[in-house]
Write a structure and sequence with these properties.
Distance between the termini: 50 Å
CATH superfamily: P-loop containing nucleotide triphosphate hydrolases
Radius of gyration: 19 Å
CATH topology: Rossmann fold
Number of helices: 11
Number of strands: 11
Shape: globular
């Protein structure tokens, strides 16, 4: 007896389920329909006819909503448009504390802090990308516990069924180009002035962008960018993220024994990202295939399609 065909949920039904699972307000669903659904449909259609799986970069500063957007796009692409899709977060490929400690001792103390180019395991990321496109069966995706500041054990990694046709790679520095040597001379904040007065840390970060990160970003078929109104927004957005993490830990919804960061620690942490975040705000709108201009409430003000605008 033939199997009954699978009935795909409507966009509304899939979004409602996503909002419920992610504990998101109804406003996100409305925003998705207005600004993101059409791009998702286009990407799914392109992936279906592409000879290779489509790799889509989703870039945006901390707290901009890129992780949620990538998850929503993958969910809608798969459930509504029938395109096998998944997400990868650059954050899940941070080096372990031990590996970053080695970098801090051999290159510069600031490499003990996760975040900047040079603190990711790109070999692991590239092998994961390969597995998602070539393996016929389950693939384990690494996960990083930010409350513990450590990569989780492989037994805790989530599994997805490969191969997939559409991969969303999201991260705060995805798609960013290296800076000029001249741009590296002057420190941008007190962290650089006091802890990187000779510029060795920022020079090595830039070298990483020119080398292994450029090779990774060259693999992107499409680049999407959530553009913050300014760098100051990052302090509040990143603090909101930390509060949600702390709430999840208290409620037992996050499997960690960590405690997260205080507001002062978050503000100090964000300064490590300032240089490249401001560089991205200035340069990515001219390089991304789609840019969404956000206001301080993360509402979309405008969508730009490469050299055009809407």
């Amino acid at each position: 007896m033939p199997e009954s065909p699978t009935i795909k949920p409507s966009l509304f039904e899939a979004l409602q389920a996503f909002l419920s699972e992610e504990r998101l307000p109804a406003a996100f669903g409305q925003t998705f329909v207005a600004w993101y659904a059409g791009i998702t449909r286009h990407l799914a259609a392109r992936a279906d006819v592409n000879t290779q799986p489509l790799l889509v970069g989703v870039s945006g500063c901390q707290g901009s909503g890129k992780s949620t957007l990538a998850k929503a796009m993958a969910r809608i692409a798969q459930e509504v448009f029938g395109t096998p899709a998944t997400t990868l977060s650059l954050d899940d490929f941070y080096l372990t504390q031990t590996e970053r400690k080695r970098l801090s001792e051999s290159i510069h103390p600031l490499f003990a802090t996760r975040g900047v180019p040079g603190t990711h395991d790109l070999a692991l990321l590239n092998s994961t990308l390969q597995a998602l496109t070539k393996v016929d069966g389950p693939v384990a995706l690494p996960e990083f516990d930010k409350a513990q500041d450590e990569r989780t054990k492989p037994v805790q990694w989530r599994q997805v069924c490969a191969p997939v046709r559409l991969i969303f790679l999201e991260g705060w520095c995805v798609g960013i180009s290296p800076q000029s040597d001249l741009a590296l001379v002057e420190p941008v904040n007190e962290t650089e002035r006091e802890q990187d007065s000779g510029g060795r840390w920022r020079q090595e970060v830039n070298r990483q962008l020119q080398d292994t990160y450029a090779a990774l970003f060259d693999q992107l078929d499409v680049l999407l960018f959530l553009k913050a109104p300014d760098f100051n927004a990052v302090f509040d957005w990143r603090w909101e993220q930390e509060q949600r993490l702390s709430d999840a830990i208290r409620e037992g919804a996050h499997p960690t024994t960590g405690t997260g960061m205080t507001r002062n620690e978050v503000d100090a942490f964000v300064l490590h990202y300032q240089r490249l975040t401001e560089h991205a705000l200035a340069t990515l709108p001219g390089r991304a295939d789609v840019t969404w201009d956000l206001d301080h409430e993360r509402s979309v003000r405008r969508m730009q399609l490469m050299s055009a605008s809407t």
